[in-house]
Every structure is written in C-alpha cells, then in structure tokens.
Write a structure and sequence with these properties.
Shape: globular
Number of strands: 7
Structural class: alpha/beta
Strand order of the largest sheet: 3-2-1-4-5-7-6
Helix content: 40-55%
Order of helices and strands: HHEHEHEEHEHHHEE
Length: 236
Amino acid sequence: MNLQHRSLNKELLDEENIPFEDIKKNMQELNFINTWLGGHSITISGLKKLVGLNNSVTICEIGCGGGDNLVALNNWCNQHQIKVGFIGIDINPSCTMFAASRQELMNNTTWLTLDYEKVVFDQKPDVIFSSLFCHHFTNDGLICQLKWMQKNSKLGFFINDLQRNYLAYYLIKILTKLFSSSYLVKNDAPLSVARGFKKNEWNRLFSEAKMHSYSIKWKWAFRYLIIYKNDRNSFI
C-alpha cells in the first residue's frame, strides 16, 4: 500500500443497498473502536475547546451514523450540568433509523436524513462537528464542507479524523482481521486510514478555503483533532 497520497478507492459503506443488519454490525464495532482507542474522548475534547463555560449548547453532527458520538457527548454534558440539544445528520436512512432508537437521545435530538449540504437551519447550532466523516470526501468536497461548517455554526466547528500513517494502516488491518466479524469493518477500517490525511494536507485545505483561525492537534490513536473558531482572535 502506497500511502504517499490519499487513496481514491471508495469504501464499501459508501455503496448503496447494504443490508441494515450489516450496517448495524459495522456501527457497533466502530463504537467499540472509538471507545477503546480514544475516539470519543477526542470528540469530547473538541467540544470542550469550543463550548468553554457555556451552560447551554446546541450541537450538530454531520455524518452522525448510529449516534454513538452524540451519546458520548450527551453523557459528558449531563455530567457537567450543560443543557444540550443535538441535531444528527446522515444521508443513510438505515443510520438515522438506528440512531433514532437510542433511548439516551430521544428527548433532545432531531434526526435529519439527507445530504448535509442541503440542510438549512432555522437557527444555527452553536457547534458543528464530524468524526471519521471527512475521509469519505475528495479534497474539493472537503473545502466546500469546511466553508459550510463555518457558515452554519455560531461558535465554530471541530473535526476528528484519521492520520494517514503506515503503522496505523497495518495495525488496524491486523486487529480487524483478528477480532472483527464485520466484512465492512475488515475492508473499510484500513482503507479509511489510506483515505486519511497528513497535517500539511489539512493546512492546504484550510488555506484554499481561506480560513485561518484553526488549530490541528495529533491525538492517539493516529488521529487529528482540528478546531475552528469563528472568533478570528481565538488562537492568537
């Protein structure tokens, strides 16, 4: 595998007509990976950086999948007495159907089944974020995505996504071969790394989007947390 450049191969999960039970198994295993390899803790860190001392917040996730990230954020907000409302957006109806069944989110979450670019908010959410979503897009698509998140958030946005790295690629390939029972995870997990990013590529994307008030932090395990604040002086 040549990881000098991002892979252009499509993941199986991006195909249509995947049986719901296969998608459900995929989401369950991804939640396990996010829990034990620190993915959810990175998402919580991104929210903390943007929310600060606010005691009420509205959070939107694009590419929300089965809602696991929102459950993790909901638990954290409840622990810190933060009143929270969620908007989960995913183009796949199987994902939003599964997410809508989450008991933890039934009272404070709106689910939208459509392309995030087609969403028009009556009132902008405070924070927009994505987790393991950006690597599904081309560079041109990502520039549009960055601009959309900037335009549609009050405080800003954050991204939790994969570093393209040889060690990460072969480790996840071995781990999923040994422990995964999902053909989607076995195929897509290493491919996701191959479709991931290097830091200089993120800098180039933000430069092309003409956006400057952002930070990029490397996080275990082989991820980047990118935070953009609508206040241009936030990182000065």
